[in-house]
Amino acid sequence: MKIDRRGDIGFMEAMAGAMTVCIVMLGFCSFVMTDAMADHTPQHTFDWDLVDGICLDGEGRYTLDRTSELEAYAEENGLAGISVDISAGSASGVGTLHIDVGKTSGMHIGERKLVSVSTEDGRSVPTLVEVTEFL
Amino acid sequence: MDAVMFIALIGIAVTILCQAGSDEQGDVGPDVSETLDALFESKIDSELLGFETDNRVMKISDVVALSVGHGRTYGLDYIRECLDRMYPWTTAYGLSLEYGSSVLDWSMHADESSSRVTRTYPVEYGGELVVTLVLYG
Q1: CA-nearest residue of chain A to B30?
Q2: Cystine design at B108: which of B6, B13, B34, B94 (Cβ 3.0–4.6 Å)?
Q3: Considering the domain A48-134, what is its CATH architecture?
Q4: Whole-model pTM?
């Protein structure tokens, strides 16, 4: 780098410094934007409110009356079908409920959630709800 | 020289942002806490948890605390089955149960965890049951 007696660098050196700063600044801005986009990209998850209202009767059977809501959800989200399996542990003596909406075959995404289902006699049974969304 | 200092400052800023991003990945999702609450705050027939002589509706956390405190196994197979069904892949989770000075844990290992949650449940006959669930992979 050629420096004159006053310490000033020439035009080419100044341009090289300015370009370096611009390139680094561009890279930094790209990094910040990519990081921000990753945080704000919504990840599809099942709307678990759709399976609210699971009931367990005195005979150990699950019931859920949300078929129409599941059909509407599948249509809104472009799903071919939805399958819901509701079950308790094997020692509970409680039956399994299976609900199918639409076409339940092919590529799918599965999610599961453990919920507590209350009964009229004061029990609350840990219940596994498995939802399979067919694409 | 000014350009070098500028580049150094930008590098420090990127490092800080990366560090902050990696710290957020260790946050516990709300669904893990909900899983523990749904399991340990449930009330079922004690007969299903191994109490064959005195069948009544009991909180799972109370039964598990009794097992941990007295070296029994009441309720442990039940919660293990529920968690195995919730997290069915191999070495998916580790569980630690602490009641008073007694601790029982299983499947805890040194692999890096994806999330860890600790919940405390009051026990009907005194004390608290401290439950820690660690998810791996």
Answers
A1: A113
A2: B94
A3: 2-Layer Sandwich (3.30)
A4: 0.72
